[in-house]
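Q: What structure does this chain adopt?
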Amino acid sequence: MRTQTLFGILFLLGGIFQSITAYLIYQGHDHYILRFANRKLGMIIYIIFALLLFLLAYINLF
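A:
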């Protein structure tokens, strides 16, 4: 397995977990980001981070 493929898989898993975190914040679960920002801004931060990780996964896998 090439290192680039491994990084792609790791970025994909990271994006999935960040998406799950954004969804849980949307559902009302407490998270440490809510100490610094309100719920809407926290969700936006995690969605942007997840999209960045999905982009990196796409670049490394294809």
